[in-house]
Design a protein that fits this description.
- This protein is α+β, with helices and mostly antiparallel strands.
- The chain has one domain (about 5-185).
- About 25% of the residues lie in helices and about 30% in strands.
- The protein is built from 3 helices and 7 strands.
- The protein has a 7-stranded antiparallel β-sheet with strand order 1-2-3-4-7-6-5, with helices on both faces.
- Strand 1 and strand 2 form a beta hairpin.
- Helix 2 packs antiparallel against helix 3.
- The longest helix is centred in the middle third of the chain and has 19 residues, at about 115-130.
């Protein structure tokens, strides 16, 4: 049987699961600043859609996997990823979910140097939580200025892997200047 569900059900799920209203005056992140997380021409996804009004992305990895990504935030940037799977491809062992989490994060953040900096630590911490028996319950772990809130729902009509990345938004922006290289003869710091 072909994995047939409407991507709109993902949208409804995310709107119920993820829309948070923050009543704070010190918002450092405005909804108008949200952009698609999945970059254009990402080779892992098909049927990629960005719904700017809802700040939601919908995409498919294959006939058995679809994702929805929602964004919200104020002082923290919340990126919520729901990976919905065809029950026919789901395994109940921890290794399966570890591989799915690693695969979806790699695919979403394909060639993103920020993700590459913490990729190994994410995979190790997720795997440790799975081996500690965290299926069907929410678990979290920090990595630098990010906190990951995860839940694996291995049964039902649409087994789901929920990953939420919460990143603190700093007030200060660090400006990077282009490095200027001087020949040794013109560099007064060179002796």
């Amino acid at each position: 049987m072909r994995f047939g569900f409407q991507l709109t059900s993902l949208l409804i799920c995310l709107l119920i699961f993820g829309n948070r209203s923050f009543g704070q005056d010190d918002c450092r992140l405005k909804p108008s600043e949200f952009r698609p997380i999945i970059q254009a021409f990402n080779p892992f996804f098909t049927n990629h859609q960005w719904k700017a009004t809802d700040k939601v992305e919908l995409a498919r990895l294959d006939d058995h996997r679809a994702i929805a990504i929602a964004q919200s935030g104020c002082i923290r940037h919340h990126i919520q990823v729901n990976l919905m799977l065809d029950p026919a491809v789901v395994s109940f062992d921890a290794k399966f979910w570890e591989e799915e989490a690693a695969m979806i994060m790699y695919a979403i953040f394909y060639k993103d140097p920020k993700y590459q900096a913490y990729q190994q630590e994410f995979e190790e911490k997720f795997a440790q939580k799975m081996y500690d028996g965290s299926r069907n319950q929410e678990f979290n772990f920090p990595i630098g200025t990010r906190n990951f809130v995860c839940k694996v729902i291995p049964t039902g009509a649409h087994p789901t892997l929920q990953l939420e990345m919460v990143e603190y938004v700093f007030k200060e922006e660090i400006l990077r200047k282009k490095a200027v290289y001087l020949p040794d003869s013109r560099d007064d710091g060179w002796k």
